């Protein structure tokens, strides 16, 4: 799998910004158009455009189309090319996130089990989920506490509530 390292931005980074119901989205991609990150303002570990990045909105047409369909309630599963750079453990956790269906929630313990990690690794699983570079597209917002509580979300709990409500996993209040 090709790799991308957020700390090493000498690669040819392309980006665009999109408006959404959860606020502005910043998307980055490699030159082939593979999505490397999707973040929101104020996100823990989020990205900010750099002067050497290339603003190329045309490269993101398919991602923009799919995101618009998702927010309109017409798309339940993303089909986008992406490249992420994580340890083998993080990649297993992120793959487990990909298996959580639209409109459902799961727990950190369940993600640990799906990733082949022990129950004792739940804290490490939480760290891997928090480092997910592809908010929304890789549905880390669908992970909740074992007691049903809406625990941390790198994009903020208000966004997590909005996404889960939009998907029907939470009742609107």
UniProtKB/TrEMBL annotation:
<feature type="domain" description="Methylated-DNA-[protein]-cysteine S-methyltransferase DNA binding">
    <location>
        <begin position="88"/>
        <end position="169"/>
    </location>
</feature>
<keyword id="KW-0963">Cytoplasm</keyword>
<dbReference type="Pfam" id="PF02870">
    <property type="entry name" value="Methyltransf_1N"/>
</dbReference>
<dbReference type="InterPro" id="IPR008332">
    <property type="entry name" value="MethylG_MeTrfase_N"/>
</dbReference>
<dbReference type="InterPro" id="IPR036217">
    <property type="entry name" value="MethylDNA_cys_MeTrfase_DNAb"/>
</dbReference>
<feature type="domain" description="Methylguanine DNA methyltransferase ribonuclease-like">
    <location>
        <begin position="13"/>
        <end position="82"/>
    </location>
</feature>
<keyword id="KW-0234">DNA repair</keyword>
<dbReference type="Pfam" id="PF01035">
    <property type="entry name" value="DNA_binding_1"/>
</dbReference>
<keyword id="KW-0808">Transferase</keyword>
<dbReference type="GO" id="GO:0032259">
    <property type="term" value="P:methylation"/>
</dbReference>
<comment type="similarity">
    <text>Belongs to the MGMT family.</text>
</comment>
<dbReference type="InterPro" id="IPR036631">
    <property type="entry name" value="MGMT_N_sf"/>
</dbReference>
<feature type="region of interest" description="Disordered">
    <location>
        <begin position="36"/>
        <end position="55"/>
    </location>
</feature>
<dbReference type="InterPro" id="IPR036388">
    <property type="entry name" value="WH-like_DNA-bd_sf"/>
</dbReference>
<dbReference type="InterPro" id="IPR014048">
    <property type="entry name" value="MethylDNA_cys_MeTrfase_DNA-bd"/>
</dbReference>
<keyword id="KW-0227">DNA damage</keyword>
<keyword id="KW-0489">Methyltransferase</keyword>
<dbReference type="InterPro" id="IPR023546">
    <property type="entry name" value="MGMT"/>
</dbReference>
<dbReference type="GO" id="GO:0003908">
    <property type="term" value="F:methylated-DNA-[protein]-cysteine S-methyltransferase activity"/>
</dbReference>
<comment type="function">
    <text>Involved in the cellular defense against the biological effects of O6-methylguanine (O6-MeG) and O4-methylthymine (O4-MeT) in DNA. Repairs the methylated nucleobase in DNA by stoichiometrically transferring the methyl group to a cysteine residue in the enzyme. This is a suicide reaction: the enzyme is irreversibly inactivated.</text>
</comment>
<feature type="active site" description="Nucleophile; methyl group acceptor">
    <location>
        <position position="140"/>
    </location>
</feature>
<protein>
    <recommendedName>
        <fullName>Methylated-DNA--protein-cysteine methyltransferase</fullName>
        <ecNumber>2.1.1.63</ecNumber>
    </recommendedName>
</protein>
